[in-house]
């Protein structure tokens, strides 16, 4: 796998030194893994996820719809000619991961995953199994510091060429900084780059979403929903691809996933893709 071995060694060294997990506290990434049917979760995560499902029964559908949105957006952008992908807020690996989708269409695609979460670092080796022609890498970085994150990503990506930046189901966890973060990334990416985002919204199921926010906040993970107008602000100055801002299952649905059977309330997220002109 081109370009991956040095990064793998670096990950192993970081994991030995930095990873310290408290499995007695619920963790948003592990709760998400539980919604998707994964096994990287512990009793505290399952208990918190159970409380979330009790007030927000769409959580599993929302997680699956978000993953399907990632697959469709990545495939479309790879088919359109983009060969560099930056996935911020990667989460626990769940196949097919973004690089698998991108490199299935474009075997020479370069993909960088970025997260600041120790649980993701622990599982990052699973993200480095790409094609021989392409490159996959993982950087430990915080979305709240876009410049440092991009500097690390630039060891693999050429930031003078178009990059597809994905921030799916991420910025609702940093609501006070979300628009600042998005604008900084947008300012650094060149013409032809893409911004892919999904974000929790209360527009479709306001009561259930309000209770979900309470559960996450009580578990130590503040989260905020946004309206359609607030979500649109993230794409100011860039050109939205059709069909614009819609619930994630409505974004170019494909017969190869089950998103067309998921209601807007089930998805509970807006999704959109825009290109820098």
> What's the pLDDT, averaged over the residues?
89
Which percent range fits the helix content?
Answer: 40-55%
Shape: globular
Strand content: 5-15%
Low-confidence stretches: 1-18
Helix and strand element order: HHHHEHEHEHEHEHHEEHE
* Cα radius of gyration in angstroms: 18 Å
Largest sheet: 8 strands, mixed
Number of strands: 8
Structural class based on helices, strands and sheet pairing: alpha/beta
> What is the count of helical runs?
11
Gap between N and C termini, in Å? Answer: 33 Å
How would you describe the overall organization of this protein?
The protein is an alpha/beta fold and 277 residues long. It is 40% helix and 14% strand. The protein has 11 helices and 8 strands. Strands 1, 2, 3, 4, 5, 6, 7 and 8 form an 8-stranded mixed beta sheet that branches. Helix 5 (98-105) links the parallel strand 1 and strand 2 (110-115). The radius of gyration is 18 Å and the shape is globular. The model is unreliable at 1-18 (pLDDT under 50).
Topology of helices and strands:
Blueprint: H1 5-18, H2 28-35, H3 43-55, H4 59-79, E1 84-88, H5 98-105, E2 110-115, H6 118-122, E3 135-140, H7 146-153, E4 164-168, H8 178-188, E5 194-200, H9 206-218, H10 228-233, E6 239-240, E7 246-247, H11 264-267, E8 269-275
Helix pairs in contact: 2-3, 3-9, 4-5
In brief:
This protein is α/β, with parallel strands linked by helices and 277 residues long. The chain is built from 11 helices and 8 strands.
For this entry, give a set of tags.
single chain; 277 residues; alpha/beta; disordered N terminus
